[in-house]
Amino acid sequence: MELSFQEFVNESEQIVLESLNQLGYSSVNELAWLEPPDSTLGDLAFRVAFDLAKSLGKKPGEIASAISERSKDRVASSRYILSLEGHQSGFLNAKINLRNLAKDVLERAAEGSYGKIDLGHGSPVLIEHTSVNPNKALHVGHLRNVAIGDCLNRVFRFSGYDTYVLNYIDDSGLQVADIIVGFNYLGFPKESTGNEKYDHYAGDTVYVTVTKKYETDPTLREKQKFVLKSMESNDSSISKIRLEITDRILKEQLKTCWRFGARYDLFVYESDIIHSNLWSTVFQTLKDKGIAKYETEGKLAGCWIVSTADEVEGEDKVLVRSDGTATYVAKDIPFAALKAGVVSDPFSYSIYVQQPDGSNILRTEINSENKTSPVPWGSESLTLIDTRQARLQRIIQYILSIFSYGINESKYKFVGYAIISLSSRTASALAPAYEKDLEGESGDGKVVTMSGRHGTYVNADDAMDLVKSKALEETRKRNPEINDPTWFDNVAEKVAISALRFGILKQDLDKMIVFDSEESLKLIGETGPYLLYTYARTSSIISKLGSERRSDAMSEYTKLDSLEEMALIKTISKFSICIEKTVKNLAPKWLAHYSYSLCESFNSFYEAHRVLQEPDPEVRESRIRLIRASQNVLRSCLSLLGIEALERV
Predict the structure, then answer these.
(1) How far apart are CA 164 and CA 361, in angstroms?
(2) Would you give the end-to-end CA distance of the chain in angstroms?
(3) What is the largest CA-CA distance in the chain?
(4) Do the Cβ atoms of 304 and 319 come closer than 8 Å?
(5) pLDDT digits (tens, 9 = 90+) for 442-461
(6) Is residue 588 a contact partner of residue 641, using CB atoms and an 8 Å limit?
(7) Would you list the DSSP string of 150-190?
């Protein structure tokens, strides 16, 4: 591990535990710490004295003072602990030796990569995200899935895990059947008109129209059932249409995801799961273990259902309908079992497409020659999914625990997130044609809730285009001397993606996001463009050095003693703590908040102190290295967030 604030934490904990043991308080094995709101008290605060007060019959302040007194010799020889003092209130406060920390941190952070921690030790992790039905374009809500999944992939890999990104392609479900109904029975042409992206055409025109037609033409439901059954039985004519249409849509979806900065390793096709007999094998096991039960009475008569322990919400989940077709729940179970390693891999693999970064996406196949599996099935897996599907995921976890007698239960994890809604002004700008419908969904016109089935949603491509157009206006205003359309287009694109991604990632996963295109582009406050602006500011300072030779002044950083300088050094040193917190909590918000605090600390420092004009060579060199360290860590933060750093905004 790079030397960081964590070293100070570890050493402080060790000294406190040793002192407790010497005092005869050996029952304490772990210490909780917090950062005092008033930094003059210290950089860490332990409340162990409060925990011991009752059992010892002493006041917390008395216990804290005893621990402090016992630790004096160890603190005196410590490199990072300046003091460890007991406060009369009972807190045990530790202060960091910022000068020693500055030297160790800045020497490393100013020269390159900093903050990497080997949490994973090379262990594999499967991360499934996106998984949008190939019958339509991604809408704004899907971007939350993509952003979270892609960010976790980046952070896990940065932390020493060997990640493998999966995208589940539901090419045989009801929604795919719906667009085939549109093409086969409602006369929609197979080709879109004009320059419309094919996924937009299939979703906005064909799918939305078909779902509305079901309400007025009951016979279409029979056609839907026929198509669904034909897809499962691999009927040649229906399957040919399915393969052609879903492949065209999927490739358009990929363009959207690549534009948003995501990448993948493998596409797992639901049709391959069905035709591999994996589902039939799993289904038989479910019946043999009594997990799947056949209903003979009531409205679910003729269906196979699964009942789960300790579930109080909703009805028993149907696995197989009375007409013999499997539900989406049933189709998810064998894939989950494969990820957990409780069933054998039935697939062959081939290259599907090459990505912009030069890597290949593989795809599953059946009855092909290449049987060598590139996927570490049976590893820990993360599934990114809307919280409205949480009950389904608990059912899957329950089934896997019975399948494997609990052995693989902890391997299959799901990361739930709440929906994205739109501010009324953003919805108006993106979808004026159905603004009234959108406002009707929200009730008060302030927050717009989307509905894919009713066609009241905003496509991700349109949202990115809108934010880009606003970013382009601002970029031109701020750079009137530049006359390069290509430069403006590139900067506006990157700023737009930063606004969308950061706006998503900074939120609590269980909190609904209300996206507003104008708020997200602000260059002040907690936004993606603010991060890019700060990075560009560091680049501008460094570029002004030109070919100037580095100063020969050997800095021990003793003159970096202002509040702003010390605060920035301490913030830089906490990078690895932020990474570990993000991984352990599966929460990108910690990385987003850290990135913002780093920018705030840097801007406070730079606005208070001269750098290039500083006459003292040692101070000047120290501050330049402080800027280089800030730039390097911020570059890493941006990359982990999926935001491309820009030298100028």
Answers:
(1) 11
(2) 34
(3) 89
(4) yes
(5) 444 566 666 555 556 789 99
(6) yes
(7) HHHHHHHHHTT-EEEEEEEE-TTSHHHHHHHHHHHHS---S
Contact, 152 vs 127, CB < 8 A? yes
Cα(62)–Cα(623) distance, rounded to whole angstroms? 43
Domain-wise residue ranges, the chain: 5-96, 124-421, 422-520, 528-641
- In CATH, the architecture of 124-421 is 3-Layer(aba) Sandwich (3.40)
What tokens appear for 619 in the block? 């101070």
- CA–CA gap between residue 548 and residue 566 (Å, rounded): 27
Residue 604 is encoded by which pair of tokens?
């406070």
Query: Please, is 203 exposed, middle or buried when counting C-beta atoms within 10 Å of its C-beta (0-12, 13-18, 19+)?
Result: buried
CA angle (245, 251, 254) in 5-degree steps: 140
- Predicted confidence at residue 557, as pLDDT, reads 80
pLDDT tens digits for 164-211?
999 999 998 899 999 999 999 999 999 887 789 999 999 999 999 999
> Which pLDDT does position 313 carry in this prediction?
47
* From the candidate CATH numbers 3.40.30.10, 3.40.190.150, 1.20.1330.10, 1.10.730.10, the one assigned to the domain spanning 528-641: 1.10.730.10
Whole-model pTM?
0.91
CATH number of 5-96: 3.30.1360.70
Closest alpha carbon to 404 in 291, 270, 294: 291
Contacts of 373 (CB under 8 A, 6+ apart): 345, 347, 349
pLDDT at 497: 96
For 25-76, what is each residue's pLDDT tens digit?
A: 877 777 889 988 888 889 999 999 998 998 889 999 999 999 999 999 999 9
Give residues with Cβ within 8 angstroms of 103, minimum separation 6: 556, 557
Sign, Cα dihedral of 614, 618, 619, 621? positive
